[in-house]
Design brief:
The protein is of the alpha/beta class. It has seven helices and seven strands. Helix 3 links the parallel strand 1 and strand 2.
Length: about 200
């Protein structure tokens, strides 16, 4: 899997890799929530963190790529919002327990043991009644979808993600489709979406 240097290099391009538009499932699942404290785990270039800040959330956005965080900072400045950008390795970062009304883990693909560690800490950071949203490339995307990592062991399934969150109440654990423009026309990417609530 790509390390910090590889991600820094990817983010060196002047343009945003994934555009400034927030992920469609982040919007559809979170738009109706009352803003509070939010944690974006593995924020990358910060598009979801900036959108959350625009909705009134007090956002902490964590990533190990200083280059990605700098791009997020420029996007936030252009949009007139404030985000607390934090450079940290997610395998070492421990958010405060029960401190966040929303924790977002979007397209964070790690080896299973590492992902389990991050998800455990993410779940522990959710306040009672707060929300954890996990979205990522689904295993079936390899055969039935488009895009995403080509490595089966880092891909999600709704069942596996839900099982990794035993301390939360699972509200939704589903596969969802996301239209993607390709050279062959529009095709669907398949994602796992798990929406859970803190106890």
């Amino acid at each position: 899997m790509a390390g910090r240097a590889e991600w820094d290099q990817r983010y060196q391009t002047s343009e945003l890799i994934w555009t400034a538009t927030p992920n469609r499932f982040v919007v559809s699942e979170l738009a109706g929530l009352r803003p509070g404290r939010a944690l974006d785990v593995g924020t990358g270039e910060g598009r979801n963190a900036v959108w959350l800040a625009e909705q009134g959330w007090q956002v902490t956005a964590v990533d190990f790529s200083a280059v990605g965080l700098a791009k997020g900072g420029r996007l936030a400045e252009a949009r007139g919002v404030t985000v607390d950008w934090l450079a940290a390795d997610l395998l070492e970062y421990q958010p405060a327990p029960k401190a966040f009304d929303l924790v977002l883990v979007a397209y964070l693909h790690l080896p299973p043991a590492e992902l389990a560690t991050v998800l455990h800490r993410a779940a522990a950071a959710v306040a009672p009644g707060g929300t954890l949203l996990v979205v990522g490339h689904d295993l079936t995307n390899l055969t039935d979808g488009v895009g995403g990592p080509p490595f089966p062991d880092v891909l999600y399934t709704p069942e596996a993600i839900a099982a990794a969150l035993p301390t939360l109440d699972i509200r939704r654990a589903v596969r969802v489709r996301r239209p993607v423009e390709t050279d062959a026309g529009t095709r669907d990417a398949i994602d796992t979406l798990v929406h859970a609530v803190g106890r």
